[in-house]
Amino acid sequence: MRTTLIAANWKMNLGTPSAAVEFVGRTRHPLSEIEGVEVVICPPFTALAAVEETLRGTRLRVGAKNAHSQAKGAFTGDVSAPMLAGLCTHVILGHSERRAGGSLDETDEAIRRKVEAALANGLVPILCVGENLTQNEAGETSTIVGGQVRTALADLSAEQTRGCVIAYEPIWAIGTGKAATPADANLTVALAIRGTLAEQFDEPTAQSVRVLYGGSVTVENIADFMAMPDLDGALVGGASLKDDFPELVRRAANAKSG
Ligand code: PGA
After folding, report:
1. Torsions phi, psi of 239, nearest 5?
2. Which of 57, 87, 128, 129 is the least crowded, having the fewest Cβ atoms under 10 Å away?
3. Is 94 in the pocket of ligand 1 (CB under 6 A)?
């Protein structure tokens, strides 16, 4: 059984401790009452400590949105996995906004090293993969997504891989209001992600890794995504900053239990 997971990707928003605490202070009670779903809130680094303190003792978890692959050293402006380990339990890695072609230049190889650093420090990596519009239109989705998964997990054991979460986020669907259809997302996850995991590791590993969908998830469409058998949750950007985020999580939980 794969427990449903909803991760809130705040991106570069609510980054002051006061704004972040105000938001989680308002939503933590309704969120904690929802059974059968894990919730991970991922604020900017500057608000991690404050959010962690506000959520301590609840079932809600905290995640970061990047980690350097080295533990320490001359990397001005970076934050490492061991620095995050006391502050959060999860870390989003390889988001398309950080990858080559996004606003930064992270390669598959760099992301692989970050995944390993996260696992070595007890953090659950939420590895993001996804194709851009040109690749999608050229019918390359499976090749691109499968390749991203394969490279990022290349040096891991099956057991380590089972400790990872993968988020399938078609780039053209992120922040555009044009979500993938649930059926298309499910197919890509089944074929390109679980299929790759089965080849690279084994079928039990392919079936035990949790895979999220991300890209214009809303309170209105979450139930349709969660009705899909291969989608185990969602990575939610814009809609995670809204007051009805607990309602989105409740609909996800209901869709999975119903
Ligand atoms: P969105 O972002 O929900 O605003 O489309 C998702 C993401 O980038 O993780």
Report:
1. -70, -10
2. 57
3. no
Cβ atoms within 10 A of the Cβ of 148, count?
26
Active site residue 90: no
Ligand 1 pocket, mutate which of 216, 218, 219 (most atoms under 8 A from CB): 216
One of 38, 52, 116, 169 is an active-site residue; which one? 169
The pLDDT tens digits of the residues spanning 144-182 come to 999 999 999 999 999 999 999 999 999 999 999 999 999
**3-class state of residue 58 by DSSP:** coil
Question: Which entry of 52, 95, 106, 116 is annotated as an active-site residue?
Answer: 95
Give percent of the chain with pLDDT exceeding 70.
100
Separation in Å, CA 72 to CA 117, 127, 160: 11, 22, 23
Q: Which of 195, 256, 192 is nearest to 227 (CA)?
A: 256
Rounded to the nearest angstrom, the distance between the alpha carbon of 97 and the centre of ligand 1 is 10
**How far apart (Å, rounded) are the C-alpha atoms in residues 137 and 121?**
39
Residue 95 annotated in active site: yes
- The response to whether residue 217 sits with its C-beta less than 6 Å from ligand 1 reads yes
Q: What is the pTM of this model?
A: 0.98
d(CA 163, CA 158): 9
Per the CB < 8 A criterion, the answer to whether 214 and 185 are in contact is no
Phi, psi of 36 (to 5 degrees): 80, 10
Distance CA 109, CA 224 (A): 34
Q: Give 130's pLDDT tier (boundaries 50, 70, 90).
A: very high
Å from CA of 169 to ligand 1 middle: 8
Q: 3-state class of 39 per DSSP? A: strand
